[in-house]
Amino acid sequence: MKSVRFLKSSFFLFLVLVIAGCSSAPKVTRVSADTVTDLSGYWNDTDVRIVAESLINGCLASPQIANFTRENRALPVVIVGTFQNQSDEHIDTSILTKRMETALINSGKVDFVASAGERGELRTEREEQQMWASEESAKRLANETGADFMLIGSVKTIIDQAGSKATRTYYVYAELIDVETNRKLWVGENNEIKKIIERPPARF
Amino acid sequence: MGRGKQRNKEDHRTASRKVLRRGPEVLMCRRAARNICVPLFLAALCVSCATVRDFGDVDDGVYWGDFAGAHEQLNEKKDRLYAKTDTVLYHLDSGMISHYGRFFDRSNEELAEAERQIYNNFTKSVTQAVGSYVVNDSVVDYAGEEYEDIYTNIFMALNYYHLGNMEDAFVEIRRFDNKQKELSTKYAAAILSARQSAPGDIDESVARYGDSVIQFHNSALARYLSMLFYRSEGQYDSADVDRRLLLNAFAAQPQLYPFPVPSCIPSELEIPADKARLNFISFSGLAPRKHEEAIRVHLLSSGVYYKIALPVMTDTPSQVASIRAVFDTGEVLPLEIIENISAIAKDTFKQKQALVYFRSLVRSISKAASSIAFNLASDSAEDNNMGLLFSVLSLSSQVYTEVSETADLRMSRYFPGAAHIGGINLDPGVYSFTVEYLDAGRRLVASERFENVYVGPDRLNLVESVCLK
Predict the structure, then answer these.
(1) pLDDT in single tens digits along all 204 residues of chain A
(2) Per residue in B54-93, pLDDT tens?
(3) Which residues are registered as beta bridge partners of B41?
(4) Measured between alpha carbons, how far is B291 from B294 in angstroms, rounded to an integer?
């Protein structure tokens, strides 16, 4: 009798496990945004965070920016230019530039104006206001703030690989260039991201 | 003699008496023989029953240039055409047909997925490896041939160009370059390990398959595209580096580039200020296919042989012998070959072929060893029935070897066999022209019409055409 009961309960447990195993819902685990999650070895959110922090800190600590503010009694006005992806993987560099832009604006040491991609919509809106908005509320044409500096940059990679082992090193550059004189106000470099990727010898 | 015959008869009678006396043992032997041989035979039968996959409708669509229809057929018959271990092949085929059909976004999705799976499948599954050791290499997840892996990036680069995304087109060229650098060393460790597992005294007739030295290390086609991309960005220094690397590809790999450097190359970076450059890239024919070469080496002393079935790549014949662009103005621009993709496919396959060869050798010799062991056991068995059992086992083992040792002939079907290029300086404006594919007798095989193509200065005007006949 005991063994029959044992068999029954074992079978029931087995059934529960099978049903639980067959669940079609994906397993989701929430983690803190600063958790390091290296899955493929490619560029990921952790890399963006490390690089952005390092470049932002470098930019804000730059004596040239403080000098500019002191000499001109105004914050430098920056426009985001091209941040080129010159790596061997598809990287959305706009995440990096947006992060930098946010941090620099929030620091209160730099002003930003809308980038080339953003201002088209604003200009259309202003033009339409001339026709459709009240005279008091319509915004003036040709009254944009001209940028003093352009923020440009690039991401490059160096890959070294042999057999199932590869190293990926990322070089990220950011520069603030004087729009009028082409003089470089600040150049930042980050080459802290170096990964060794080993493919497992076997899988099951 | 008479006395000998008499003794034989007596022996036979004695044996029969023994058999009669040992009835249950005989029964066990027979049952054992049946229990072992039948499953073995069935297993061999299953292994040999390779699914016949009919790509007829898809091939027809590709042949006639109806790529949308071919893709529809491919998707409709996907489950019948591709095994679970062949998903890479599906994505490659679908990605290539989508590219030819100018569905560039879909092509990128499919080719990127194929590339991801090729990378993952490079790591072998343990369970599949066991299966491959017992049966053959067809039971493992297809991990792509080298040329499939690297040319995937070329076609993704072209996809991105057509989508107007030059930055991502460059990314694909860089990925191609990285893979190309890795080629010569990718299988080095695996080949060395497999070579060490294989016996030292290998029959000369099969030893040639162990050659794993590849010539390919620089693609002229990739350099050409990179040069055009850099030129379009105004980066003439980088474009010139690619031009020189392109020339080096021809000079350093004469076995793979036995034809002259296309005559348009020197003028690609010297475009007069008032002119616009129109470039052509044309893909023709189909990449090679694999067929099986089976070699049976007899082990003289035992009467047993081992069989090695190897995949060997052979060219797919193409009707296209020459290509030209004929402008409506009457001007004719001959396109010249820049890359024999078939030759590179075969060259880069050498490494994997060597690896397959050494693995097959070890597997086949192990199977032959079991046949020899059964033979020896049969010879030394005192009991006739045990001898019979071992003989049947030996025979079954050889049948299993014969049937199960088949080459893995999987590969994608729709990569092109060759790439031709051309370039011409024109006054900026709108042009209509036809790309014509001619056979060896200068008869028209196929043509592709391009209407009202704007050819502008300081930009890349690249026209891509394809004929897979």
Answers:
(1) 555 676 667 666 666 655 555 555 778 889 888 888 888 889 999 999 999 999 999 998 999 989 999 999 999 999 999 999 999 999 999 999 999 999 999 999 999 999 998 999 999 999 999 999 999 999 999 999 999 999 999 999 999 987 778 999 999 999 999 999 999 999 999 999 999 998 877 766
(2) 899 999 999 999 999 999 999 999 999 999 999 999 999 9
(3) none
(4) 10
The pair of structure tokens assigned to A134 is 């009240």
**Chain A residues near residue B124 by CB distance under 8 angstroms:** 202-203
Per-residue pLDDT at A17: 56
Q: Report the distance separating Cα B373 and Cα B365, nearest Å.
A: 12
Are residues B122 and A164, on separate chains, in Cβ contact within 8 Å?
Answer: yes
Inter-chain touch A161–B182, beta carbons under 8 Å: yes
d(CA B147, CA B348): 7
Parallel, antiparallel, or unpaired: how do β-strands A202-203 and B124-125 relate? parallel
Chain B residues touching A198 at Cβ < 8 A: none
| DSSP characters over A41-100 | SS--HHHHHHHHHHHHHHHHT-HHHHHHHHHHTSPPEEEEEEEEEESSS---HHHHHHHH
Q: pTM of the entire structure?
A: 0.80
Q: Contact A203/B126, CB-based, under 8 Å? A: yes
3-state percent helix, strand, coil for chain A, nearest multiple of 5: 40, 25, 35
In this structure, what are the phi and psi dihedrals at residue B322, rounded to the nearest 5 degrees? -150, 160
Residue B171's closest chain A neighbor by CA? Answer: A88
Q: How many CB atoms lie within 10 A of CB B263?
A: 11
Backbone φ and ψ of B330, nearest 5°:
105, -15
Contacts of A84 in chain B (CB under 8 A): 167
A-chain residue closest to B172, CA distance? A88
| CB-CB contact of B221 with B338 (8 Å) | yes
3-state secondary structure of B40: helix
Closest residue to A85, CB basis, from B126, B171, B182: B171
Q: Which residues make beta-bridge pairs with B295?
A: B308
The answer to whether the beta carbons of residues B119 and B178 sit under 8 Å apart is no
Q: Cα separation of B379 and B169, whole Å?
A: 68
Residue in B149, B179, B137 with CA at minimum distance from that of residue B50 = B137
Q: Do A204 and B188 touch (CB under 8 A)?
A: no
- Mean pLDDT estimate for chain B: 85
